[in-house]
Structures are given as structure tokens and as C-alpha cells.
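dumping this here before i forget
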Amino acid sequence: MENWIGVGIWIVLGAVVGLSMKFLVKRPEAQPGHDVLLAVLGAFGAVIGGMLGVGLFHFYDPVALSLGGMISAVLLAALLTWIYRWGLRTLI
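structure:
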């Protein structure tokens, strides 16, 4: 049960990081919307990053609520949403 709670925390943390990227990466020509997409992209990145972090840092005792899982979840969620925000600027 503890691992499912950790994965849920990763999802919420990733959605918050994804939505905060909207305010960190400013775009003057930004169109309204993209909030749901940023939240989903952040949550996806957090789950993948959290799994990678737990696998790399806590291989013999995999617990989702570990420091390595949380840090890598935040980092990958921020990376994916930053690439999305930065990439749209170059396409427009």
C-alpha cells in the first residue's frame, strides 16, 4: 500500500511541477489553455522519473516514498514540461 501512496504523490507532484512551468517559462505569444496538457505531461514525467530514481538509488529496497524517487520525479517532470514549453515557442 505504501508504494501506491508514493506513486499517487508522484502524480500530484508532477502535475504541480507541470503547472508551475507555465509561470516559470514565459511566452509573450502564449495562447490560453494547455493547463491540462501540462499537468498530464508533468504527471507522466514524474511517474517515469520516480520509477527510474527508485530503480537507480534504492535497487534492493524499492520504496516509492524514497528521496531518490522524489528527486528524480521532480527533475523529469520539470524537464518534460520545460521541453514542451520551450519547444512550442520555436514552432510558432
